[in-house]
Amino acid sequence: MSRYWPGILPDPSVRTLDDMRYVLASPDAAGTMPLYFMYRDLALTEDDRQWLAEQNVRFDITVIPPGIVGGEYVKTKGHYHPLTPAGIGYPELYQVLAGEAHYLLQRKDLRDVVVVTAKAAEFVLIPPGYGHVTINPGVEELVMANLVSAGVASEYAFYEQMQGGAYYEMEGGVWVRNPRYPAVPPLRVIAAVEVPELGIRHGRGIYEMVSQREDLAYLNAPEKIPDDFYKT
Ligand SMILES: O=P(O)(O)OC[C@H]1O[C@](O)(CO)[C@@H](O)[C@@H]1O
Question: Ligand 1: does its nearest atom lie under 6 Å from the Cβ of 84?
Answer without folding.
Answer: no
